[in-house]
């Protein structure tokens, strides 16, 4: 059930979505989003494991294994819930289609936001029907080490500046259309690096929750 109002503040709750392959999920996913949630005042973040990511190599772990790792990572964290609609598809996971399905559920007036990293913002012009994203949701952007806050072309920079807000307040006052660049921890952690470290027998304890490390070991993943 998606709740659309915050009774204590009598203002709309922002429904925030965060998608990813999560192969595996790690602190580089979780900690920036937790910091973002504090900045913006998010009460809940919905994690969306991808089934067939259109822009990258296919995951090494199975959909069920990746889903299990996501559940393990957030089982004791009330900020996060998990939605499996993308895993149930047999076609590429296009963000625009997922956002449209959520918009239909929450209605036209409810604030809806999609969380991405600065790296994704830099390449967002390559996404399927990317120009429609802000017609459906806000974009909340987490900092990423090594990525500039300026976009690559004058046209893309103009698009950013037309939609950017400097404070989170407007995000709950409109259902879609804004971009907010958050100040989140710069954690240089990648799933690719974690998989490579596992192949080399290196320790990953500081990169992901113990429950995920234990699951990877038990399933003999990434070896």
UniProtKB/TrEMBL annotation:
Its EC number is 2.7.7.18. Transmembrane segments: none annotated. InterPro entries: Cyt_trans-like, NadD/NMNAT, Rossmann-like_a/b/a_fold. It holds the Pfam family CTP_transf_like. One of its GO terms (biological process) is NAD+ biosynthetic process. CDD domains: NMNAT. It catalyses: nicotinate beta-D-ribonucleotide + ATP + H(+) = deamido-NAD(+) + diphosphate. Pathway: Cofactor biosynthesis; NAD(+) biosynthesis; deamido-NAD(+) from nicotinate D-ribonucleotide: step 1/1. Belongs to the NadD family. Catalyzes the reversible adenylation of nicotinate mononucleotide (NaMN) to nicotinic acid adenine dinucleotide (NaAD). This is Probable nicotinate-nucleotide adenylyltransferase.
């Amino acid at each position: 059930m998606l709740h659309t109002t915050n009774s204590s503040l009598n203002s709309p709750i922002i429904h925030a979505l965060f998608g990813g392959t999560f192969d595996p999920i790690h602190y580089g996913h979780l900690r920036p989003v937790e910091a973002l949630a504090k900045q913006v005042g998010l009460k809940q973040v919905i994690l969306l494991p991808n089934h067939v990511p259109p822009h990258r190599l296919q995951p090494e772990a199975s959909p069920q294994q990746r889903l299990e790792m996501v559940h393990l990572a957030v089982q004791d964290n009330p900020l996060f819930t998990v939605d499996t609609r993308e895993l149930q598809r047999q076609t590429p996971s296009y963000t625009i289609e997922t956002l449209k399905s959520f918009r239909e559920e929450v209605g036209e007036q409810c604030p809806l936001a999609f969380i991405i990293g600065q790296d994704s913002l830099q390449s967002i012009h390559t996404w399927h029907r990317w120009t429609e994203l802000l017609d459906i949701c806000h974009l909340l952007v987490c900092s990423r080490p090594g990525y500039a806050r300026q976009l690559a072309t004058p046209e893309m920079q103009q698009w950013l500046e037309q939609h950017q807000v400097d404070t989170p307040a407007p995000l709950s006052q409109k259902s879609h259309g804004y971009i907010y660049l958050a100040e989140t921890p710069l954690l240089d952690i990648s799933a690719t690096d974690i998989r490579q470290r596992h192949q080399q027998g290196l320790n990953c304890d500081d990169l992901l929750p113990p429950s995920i490390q234990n699951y990877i070991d038990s399933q003999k993943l990434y070896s």
